[in-house]
Amino acid sequence: MGPAKVLFVMADYGHDPTETAVPYAAFKLAGFEVQFATENGKAPECDKKMLRGITQKLLGATKPAVNAYDEMSKTTEFLQPVSWSSPDFSLDSYNLVFLPGGHEKGVRQVIDSPIIHKQLAQYFPATRKPSKKAVAAICHGVMVLSETLDADGKSIIHECDTTALPARFEQVAFWGTRAFLGDYYKTYGVGSDDVEVSVRKRLDNPAKQYKNSLSPSPFVVQEEKFNYLSGRFPNDAQLLAEKTIALVQSILS
Questions:
Q1: Would strands 134-138 and 82-83 be described as parallel, antiparallel, or unpaired?
Q2: What does the pLDDT look like over 24-83, one tens digit per residue?
């Protein structure tokens, strides 16, 4: 068997650079074959506020993460993604679908996409163990899954353990920056549900299934019934990548 095949599902603009570039670098180091997909095959761009200028220095990616992003953004796979709206596009050939997060409003292109919902509604059930397919998501990437509904109108992760961006973190970022960034930290605008609330609404038993940590230390949740892992925010990206690599290597061995 050849190397594990990984697909990063991306919006044209707005994903968090740390949550994209750190896992990418780890997957490449592990020998995985990585591809990117955007709606029409346009090279994606991550959120510039997290990469450059005063907002990067105060709120954004660390210098190593910026360096990792700059390296990734020069690669052929990043510059020449496949198109997820192409008629012949399918997730079936991938061992891992990776969903980075980001709070910039551009990520709604993926979260709200009927095409991605249809693809994931077919792919995610196939990650039920034992399986050679897996999904990993971080931050708003978890919402792509929670907002994807099956034939019964339930989220495809309705029975899974998961985490996502904690409401406390989202509220602190929003209120702390509202004076100079407006509703930048609210992906669906002022008054919309926090990511945590949106995800909890889609779970069968949120009190039991939704796992949370308000510590800055890396925190990742691994589901037992499916090959599915989730993280909360950029601090979790490296650990999520490491646990995802271990999972994918184990299911393909």
A1: unpaired
A2: 999 999 999 999 999 999 999 999 999 988 788 877 899 999 999 999 999 999 999 999
Residue 47 and residue 136 in contact, taking contact as beta carbons nearer than 8 Å: no
The CATH number given to whatever domain includes residue 102 is 3.40.50.880
What is the count of structural domains for the chain? 1
pLDDT digits (tens, 9 = 90+) for 78-112: 999 999 999 999 999 999 999 999 999 999 999 99
For 249, the 3-state DSSP assignment is helix
Give the H or E element holding residue 195: helix 195-201
Name the pairing type of β-strands 228-231 and 220-222.
antiparallel
Tell me the residue range of the domain where 45 lies.
Answer: 5-252
Do 98 and 6 meet the contact criterion of CB atoms below 8 Å apart?
yes
Radius of gyration in angstroms for the set of CA atoms belonging to the chain, rounded to a whole number? 17
d(C-alpha 69, C-alpha 65), whole Å: 6
What DSSP state is assigned to residue 107? G
Q: Any bridge partners for residue 99, and if so which?
A: 137
Pair of tokens at residue 74: 């020069």
What pTM value is reported for the model?
0.97
As a whole number of angstroms, the distance between CA 228 and CA 222 comes to 6
CA angle 42, 92, 98 (to 5 degrees): 55
pLDDT per position as a tens digit, 200-226: 999 999 999 999 999 999 999 999 999
- DSSP for 34-63 reads EEEEETTSPPPEE-GGGTSHHHHHHHS--H
Give bridge partners of residue 177 from the DSSP assignment: none
SS3 126: helix
